[in-house]
Automatic annotation (TrEMBL):
It comes from the Bacteria. GO terms for biological process: monoatomic ion transmembrane transport. Pfam families: Ion_trans_2. Residues 65-136 form the Potassium channel domain. Keywords: Ion channel, Ion transport, Membrane, Transmembrane, Transmembrane helix, Transport. The chain crosses the membrane at residues 6-29, 50-78, 118-140. This is Two pore domain potassium channel family protein. It comes from Uliginosibacterium aquaticum.
Amino acid sequence: MFGKVLLIGLSLAVVIVLLHAIGSLAWGLHIQRKILLKTQNGGRLRFGQALNFLLQTASVMMLMMVVETVLWAFLYLLVDAENSFPDAIHFSLQSFTTVGFGDIMPKNDWRLLGGIEAINGVLIIGWTTAAFYAVVSQIMSHTQALKSRLPGQG
């Protein structure tokens, strides 16, 4: 059973990494294109535009992680590790974020999935943080408010 659980868990982890890669790259390219359109011909982003891009980016990244935890929850239901969707999503969010309250546990044979999801979650959350930082850096390099405050940048 251990090998089966490991194979199923790692398979979903790989699928989630691929989905996150596609989503991150697609969103990063989308934001980059929007910034370039706004700043072509020497223009700079205004504070409101920059804030809008950051809020959109945070929302998209959070949505991606919610979808990923829901995929884990569906797996718990599919393999009969949890009895209900609310319990499955609760356990999935605990595992993905490594909070681990311990109030809901999958059935004995499937407990290893929680650990695999936690490793997957740490990777995805770290990746999301790095991607968000990249967007913030890109926005800051094109923001009018920042440029106007720098010495010699009238």
